[in-house]
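*** Query protein ***
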Amino acid sequence: MEQVLNIRASVVTAPAPAALLALHVLADAESLSRGVPQACLPHGVDVAESLLPEVRQLAILLAARRQVPCARTPDRLTDAADWLAARIVLFELASLALPAAELPLLAEANARIRALGQALGLSLPTAQLAPLSDARGVLLVYSRLPLLPDALSRPLIERCTLVRSLVRLRAQPLFARLGL
């Protein structure tokens, strides 16, 4: 099932002093890798995760940290908490709107972030639960990324390029500590 993280082009005042940017992020961009035209993407998507390989790279690294050596690589290395943790770190998410049933997933993602930060000697962001604002099963997340809301009115590829440059800046020190 295709998952979309909802990050809208509006500034939201958070309990923290800084304003947060809301965006729509296509979290499962399998359709893009098969060459599906942009017009076929879900309405309202601001950023396609498939154009941000750092998210996949960090999710795989998080999964690899907890894998027990075995004779064969598992069919699926990553899980939902790895992906959520990677998004929280690289998109600098402050909060996410999740159903109550997903609270353990957020707790696990935050635990993996704290463990990685402690192992690397880095202060990595964790995220809080925000009230649900949409009943369609779309996650609403709020980012600390310094992206101007008018940048989100640009075509999808341009938006992804802008976000990718910010994600790369965020990922560089983390991946350098990991020797990548």
The chain has a mean pLDDT of 72.
